[in-house]
Amino acid sequence: MTGVPLAPPRRLVDVTVDGEAVRLPEGSTILDACPGTPTLCYGDTLTPKNACRICVVEVKGARTLVPACSRRVEPGMEIMTDTERVRHSRRLVLELLGSSTDLSTTPGAAEWSEEYGARPERFGPPGDASTDRDARHPGAHESPDGASAATVAQPAKVDNDLYVRDYEKCILCYKCVDACGEQWQNTFAIGVAGRGFDARISTEHAAPLPDSACVYCGNCIEVCPTGALSFKSEYDMRAEGTWDESRQDQTTTICTYCGVGCNLTLHVQDNEIVKVSSPHDNPVTHGNLCVKGRFGFQHVQNRTRG
Amino acid sequence: MAKKNARAPYLRLTRPLVRDAGELRPATWAEALDRAADGFRRNVERHGPDAFGMFSCARATNEMNFVAQKFTRVVIGTNNVDSCNRTCHAPSVAGLAAAFGSGGGTSSYTEIEDTDLIVMWGSSAREAHPIFFQHVLKAIRRGARVFAVDPRRTSTARWADRWLGLNVGTDIPLANAIAREIIHAGLHNATFVERGTTGFEEFAESVEPWTLESAEQVTGVPAGAIRELAHAYARAERAQLCWTLGITEHHNATDNVRALINLALLTGHVGRYASGLNPLRGQNNVQGGGDMGAIPDRLAGFQDILDARVRERFGRAWGTEIQPRYGLNLTDMLAAMGEGRLTAAYIIGENPTQSEADAEHTVERLGRLDHLVVQDIFLTKTARMADVVLPASAAWCESDGTMTNSERRVQRVRKALAPPGEARDDIDILCELARRLGHDWHYDAAEDIWDEVRSLSPIHAGMSYSRLEELQGIQWPCYSEDRVEPSFLHSRLWETDAEARGRPAPFAVLRHSPPVDLLDEDFPLRLTTGRRLDSYNTGVQSSGFASPLRRGENIELSPEDARRLGVTPGEEVRVSSRRGTVTAPVFVDPALRPGLVFMTMHFPDEVDTNSLTIEATDPIAGTAEYKATAVRVEPLCRPVGGN
Ligand code: SF4
Ligand code: SF4
Ligand code: FES
Predict the structure, then answer these.
(1) Residue nearest (by alpha carbon) to ligand 1 atom 2
(2) Domains of chain A, earliest start first
(3) Residue A175 CA: which ligand is closest?
(4) One GO biological process from the UniProt record (chain B) (predicted)?
């Protein structure tokens, strides 16, 4: 009765990846077998949503392509990651996203587009930015004219001093909704509104954040794969042209605000904290923080009266 | 309307300051350190080492706390060292140590996720410890039941299956009634009680008067709800009892903690995986400060100063003789200042003029010191009273070391920023002062200090920096480098062999002692204090960022009380206690019961809540009764003919 339950030992599973033998613990995903596969909606701390399909691979005997991020390996599985079908599918995902969304701050997007030969511009020049996406009801959206590519572009939402929502970069992966909802934060400040091409992430009644249920934990920023959600500090520095990740150091330390002991990774450029994240494999936080740990760093750098 | 609480944030200190002709003026480091050291020397020569007091910092690293207590014991030669855990969780440490021999929470965050029942007692973790609460939420999603025991229906209570809204200060009657019900229903764990505890008979007798009905009368919690909690807790396969300041900021706080421990002893919910007792600590290293010996009665690793072998071992390592008696705790030190027995103080990173109950009194006492040195990152209200102010680095991001969290996990702190201007690392400053006082101290790196800790404290021995890095922190105890111990404490109490079991855990016989500050016609409302999600303690740090959630200080009233007083949201009212008066705007919170009002202590420069609170302290741990003040709320005079 005093023992510690140990996880039962896991059996190993043999598969092949592009003809090479790979052995993995039972329960692993194809993604575990194929590191380096592009992913967007997959999150290492979240339940797979299978929303973006950029990670698809071919599995011998399967009729359709399968998402690597969620499908578990089975004994004897023959996985192919670089067939024409796979390449074509990934290209199409990148083209559709690239024509409608601003992927300029999505890590990996440029390299993948190059690798798969994606040409989003073949759908025509981007259409006008919308000022009413947040208000659209089903059916209100006008059909595109075909001369330009419809986009999700709209002005960035800068409605508080901590973080910015720039939904023209949003690929609707739902990760922020899951992180805000029942998978981590349980605040439920955001959800998906609208349908089809008009679907977007929004607060209740599209209220500005300060009038919503948001508690500014920033756990949505932590999981966002595109930079649609970002620290205000990052947003401002990008606007000024001073954001430079090559000059940033990341140092993991402990939050100063309470005894829980959350691990904070401070992103520092020129001796200024410009953003805070948390290691996803950390046993205390699993990548989550509260408003103080995430945003409460400014007091140490109030160095002169500005 | 201008926002009342929008004051300019504190600026970092970048140069040492010394006092001349009553005024603080910038100085060189050499001058400031000389002055600081001279003042200490002068006072020790005149009045002896016990005229010195060290306030160490619960937000600094373990390494800094270790050096601060070593400075106190070796360079000065007294045990007068303490930190602000006195104002929050000292009773938890005292209570747990009295029952089990060591003062840490007995479980781990992952065990919270794996438990079946969680009792959150006097803890609004959803706001005060949000990431701890995420582990609770995981448990809820896995089917665990939650009971919230709190005078306020907090955001934590909103996640609970049951909320027991007890009257402030009636925790012991409630716990005793739960115990009685468990015993009468035959639900106590007889095996565990027999093996792992002492004093059951006497305890059982002492709770006998606390029938469900009499407890209902005193606590205000319906008998049925008390019964339900008793049965659920006793029947649960695994259960966790978690508490925060609702338990500890009372004049009889250590008894409160013992009352909760009694319940775990009765049911065997301790010493097993996923069953345990968890005080949630308020500051990032309040656990570590005590673990490192920055307390008046223990050396690093909870080793008792009264134990001659312990003193001898530390004394040999440090080439000194350690005083064979307990030093003064923070509360005693303040009293000793008032009486002129303590004449020199070294305050590192603490702000007692604003964090202590009855703030005016604290200011007056500090004012009587002959020599006050304050080392901080800001010119706080306390620092403005100092003779010498030493600008320090911010421990969590400008220095290297370790800190210990609420689950006893020692984790690495790493330097990410260079401190501003001439600000220097706390440990450097301590060593400079030690050298001026005749001790040639030198540490090249925080790791050297840590290795000294490991050589003296068995429970830290196995935690090398490289292992801490590799394992993302290690929980104490960790006796050797080739093992990690179970994530929970006190499994020994379950051993069948009496020798292996060691000292059994004693039940505590406890009497109800209502809050000292009585309600009467003049002061009919019960004021209790607490934290809000985005703010922290006296607000020195959290005022530095622009939180969209912040609404400044309010006096929070129930809708019933607001109506009765004829006040409306946003209206400024006068709040008075037997000690002081403040004005604050009204906020109406339906989660409050009539008769209960709430304030925080986050905005002392605008509304000095602690000028209202009472300095009735717990005799064992010295914690003040912040949670129970008697107040009166009155509308400010309104213009004639106004509304
Ligand atoms: S805001 Fe970011 S995380 Fe949320 S759906 Fe869009 S891309 Fe995904
Ligand atoms: S991030 Fe929040 S919960 Fe975590 S240690 Fe900091 S204040 Fe506490
Ligand atoms: S990453 Fe696998 S479906 Fe999106």
Answers:
(1) A224
(2) 10-125 (3.10.20.740), 163-302 (2.20.25.90)
(3) 1
(4) respiratory electron transport chain
Cβ of A282 and B534 within 8 Å?
Answer: no
Count A/B contacts: CB-CB distance under 8 Å. Answer: 197
| CA-nearest residue, atom 2 of ligand 2 | A290
Specify the 3-state DSSP secondary structure of B462.
Answer: coil
Residues of chain A found within 8 Å of residue B534, distances taken between Cβ atoms: 216, 291-292, 296
C-alpha pair distances (Å), A186 with each of A286, B134, B146, B363 = 15, 8, 16, 43
Chain B residues whose CB is inside 8 A of the A302 CB are 9-12, 544
State pLDDT tens for residues B484-517.
Answer: 999 999 999 999 998 999 999 999 999 988 888 8
Q: Which residues in chain A have Cβ-Cβ distances shorter than 8 Å to B282?
A: 258-259
Q: How far apart are CA B239 and CA B533, in angstroms?
A: 26
**Which of B212-216, B466-470, B538-542, B581-585 comes out lowest in average pLDDT?**
B538-542
Residues in chain B: 643
pLDDT above 90: residue B60 = yes
Tell how far CA B309 is from the center of its chain.
30
- Amino acid symbol at B511: R
Query: What was the pLDDT predicted at A1?
Result: 41
> Residue A92 pLDDT more than 70?
yes
The whole-model pTM stands at 0.91
Q: pLDDT tens across A263-280, in order? A: 999 999 999 999 999 999
Mean pLDDT calculated for residue range B415-428: 96
At residue B551, the 3 state secondary structure works out as coil
Q: Which of B110, B132, B543 sits opposite A260 (nearest CB)?
A: B132
Yes or no, beta carbons of B59 and A256 under 8 Å apart: yes
State whether the beta carbon of A228 lies less than 6 angstroms from ligand 1: yes
- Hey, which bits of A111-247 come out as E strands? 163-165, 190-193, 200-203, 229-231
Domains located in chain B, CATH noted: 17-76+286-475 (3.40.50.740), 89-280 (3.40.228.10), 525-635 (2.40.40.20)
- Please state, in angstroms and rounded to a whole number, the distance separating the CA atoms of residues A198 and A177: 17
**Banded pLDDT at B304 (limits 50, 70, 90):** very high
